[in-house]
Amino acid sequence: DVKVTQSSRYLVKRTGEKVFLECVQDMDHENMFWYRQDPGLGLRLIYFSYDVKMKEKGDIPEGYSVSREKKERFSLILESASTNQTSMYLCASSPAGTLETQYFGPGTRLLVL
Amino acid sequence: DQQVKQNSPSLSVQEGRISILNCDYTNSMFDYFLWYKKYPAEGPTFLISISSIKDKNEDGRFTVFLNKSAKHLSLHIVPSQPGDSAVYFCAASAENSGGSNYKLTFGKGTLLTVNP
Question: Partners of A31 in the beta sheet?
Answer without folding.
Answer: A94
